[in-house]
Design goal:
The complex is a heterodimer of chains A (284) and B (271).
Chain A: H1 9-37, H2 47-54, H3 56-88, H4 94-102, H5 109-120, H6 125-132, H7 149-175, H8 179-187, H9 192-203, H10 205-220, H11 224-230, H12 237-246, H13 251-275
Chain B: H1 2-34, H2 38-41, H3 56-62, H4 67-98, H5 104-114, H6 119-132, H7 139-163, H8 167-175, H9 180-209, H10 212-217, H11 224-231, H12 237-258, H13 262-266
The chains are: A mainly alpha (284), B mainly alpha (271).
């Protein structure tokens, strides 16, 4: 290949994608800023931001969203790691297991919400099971907003639905770790726990990073699961953004919420990138 | 020693199977709910095994106001999304896989970072823009947004598909007299087809499932998830169960076809 002459072919191939993403991804971002910080006649303002921070619903939505992230993400990570390590054991039928473990990957958040609603609702499967075990004689209202049960149901639904994406990313990462490294550690007498902690986890860092960033960003915008399980009883940031746009017809406030969601996402992504930094000498 | 190993092995299998059951049982429950007649759905306590299989609930759901329209809308949006994102994304994937060029790494990192982009942030400004363009409540606007959401993944996956096909095969074809375009069409494309199909299926499911943007961008022309979520509050549980199961079907069917490609679809990390 002649490197001196600029080869235009790859740029031509990439051009449509770049144009599309500029028009429908980068530009809307800029516009989002405009909506959040400008009035309709184009004057800069912090009024929307102040209004959002002053809103009673905002504090509630933020608290619930943070609570959900703190419960969901670590649970998913530990569970997915356990599942991925199980797959390292070369079980019989592991192809089938990988398929089953990844089914929820294709399940929509709305469907997951409805599925868990059928379990937790008043005459649902959980109450029926508890009744047949003789624990309850009449249905218990799990989805009552005065209790913490709706949050528990949302966490379970999210863990059920979105652990598989972490699982798939971790398994892909595990596959790229050369077997010799793990075997060498074993030869030198490292037990299972030590092998995981000292060899596998450090080498898995890039995958862990990606999985955590992806999951946290998706958890910040949790929406349909919450609506399906708790309706208006539980409020989260994305649902507030939706309400300001769809019900109160105020795109400025909706965009302010959206920008707030974006800023949380970016901050957590940066935190992960810094704390899980992959040192040059540790790269494979 | 051998005995403890055996017991340990047994526990590993037990754990693996338990996890699989935890994943499958909720799907089983919604399935029996969707195929139970109405009196069983409202009964208490509910049986954990199907009592009578009936299409009554599913029929009730599909015959409900606007449901069939929304199913059709969802299918149109999903097909549009997969066609457009493949047409735009596959060339970029090919470019990334086959050429070495200035700015390649920057492009790759940008694509990777946009993959996890919050859909909420795109939906609201695009909702405003589409309204200005007179495209409010149109399926095309939903598809355009879904393409923006799916394109980064399409590019990454197609690039890994083309990387798996040796460049020498195409070079050999040109030696035998094919033009570069012919070499691509006759050699690389047929080999890439299964991978491209997996990517397309994945995009279809992504679009079929997406609820936030679809709800923000439509009003009367709802896609199925959008219709369900705005009606959830006022609809009977039978409607919800059948609807929940109905959105689930393509997801499970399609997962079966793309299971071999799972790791190239989602296993790509930021390095």
């Amino acid at each position: 290949m002649n490197l001196k002459r600029l080869n235009l072919e790859p740029y031509i191939l990439l051009l449509p994608s770049i144009l599309y993403l500029t028009l429908f991804l980068a530009w809307p971002m800029v516009q989002s800023f405009g909506l959040a910080f400008q009035t309709d006649d184009g004057q800069l303002t912090l009024a929307y931001l102040q209004r959002m921070f002053g809103d009673a619903e905002f504090a509630e939505a933020l608290r619930t969203t943070v609570k959900l992230i703190l419960a969901i993400v670590p649970l998913q990570f530990l569970l997915a790691l356990a599942m991925a390590l199980l797959m390292m054991e070369r079980l019989r039928g592991s192809n089938m297991l990988v398929y089953i473990y990844s089914i929820p990957l294709a399940v929509s958040d709305l469907a997951a919400g409805i599925i868990w609603f059928s379990i937790f609702t008043e005459r649902g499967y959980l109450n029926s099971l508890l009744h047949s075990l003789g624990v309850l004689d009449k249905p218990f209202l799990f989805l009552n907003y005065q209790t913490n049960w709706p949050i528990v149901a949302i966490v379970l639904a999210e863990v059920w639905r979105a652990t598989s994406i972490v699982f798939v990313i971790l398994v892909a990462g595990l596959q790229s770790i050369p077997r010799d490294y793990v075997e060498a550690a074993e030869v030198f007498g490292a037990g299972w726990f030590k092998r995981v902690w000292r060899v596998i986890l450090p080498l898995l860092r890039p995958s862990i990073q990606t999985a955590l960033i992806l999951r946290t960003i998706l958890a910040v915008q949790v929406f349909a699961v919450v609506l399906a399980l708790a309706g208006r009883g539980v409020n989260v940031l994305a649902a507030e953004a939706y309400r300001w746009y769809g019900e109160y017809r105020n795109p400025h406030m909706a965009a302010t919420y959206a920008m707030f969601i974006l800023s949380i996402s970016l901050t957590t992504a940066l935190i992960y990138l810094r704390t899980l930094r992959v040192k040059e000498e540790m790269r494979l | 020693m051998k005995r403890t190993r055996l017991i340990g092995r047994g526990f590993i299998y037990l754990a693996a199977i338990l996890i699989a059951l935890c994943i499958l049982i909720p799907i089983y429950l919604i399935m029996i709910a969707a195929f139970s007649p109405r009196d069983v759905i409202y009964s208490w306590p509910k049986a954990l095994f199907p009592q009578a299989i009936s299409l009554e609930t599913m029929r009730f759901f599909l015959n409900s106001y606007k449901v069939l329209d929304s199913v059709r809308n969802s299918a149109i949006v999903a097909v549009l999304t997969l066609v457009v994102s493949l047409l735009i994304g596959a060339p970029a994937g090919y470019g990334l896989a086959r050429y070495v060029f200035r700015g390649q790494d920057v492009f790759r990192v940008m694509i990777l970072s946009t993959r996890a982009f919050p859909i909420v942030i795109l939906s609201i400004p695009l909702g405003v823009t589409f309204r200005q363009w007179g495209m409010y409540d149109s399926l095309i606007s939903v598809a355009l947004l879904h393409v923006a959401m799916a394109l980064p993944t399409t590019i990454l996956v197609t690039s890994s598909v083309f990387m798996g096909i040796s460049r020498e095969l195409e070079e050999a074809a040109t030696v035998f007299g094919c033009s570069p375009v012919q070499a691509f069409m006759r050699v690389a494309l047929p080999l890439a087809l299964p991978g491209l199909a997996a990517s397309a299926i994945f995009t279809f499911v992504l679009s079929w499932n997406e609820v936030f943007a679809a709800t923000v961008l439509t009003l009367f022309n709802r896609t199925l998830p959008a219709l369900l979520i705005v009606q959830l509050d006022q609809s009977p549980v039978a409607f919800r169960f059948a609807g929940g199961f109905f959105i689930l079907i393509p997801a499970i069917v399609f997962m079966f076809f793309i299971r071999r490609y799972l790791f190239s679809l989602w296993g790509i990390t930021l390095k």
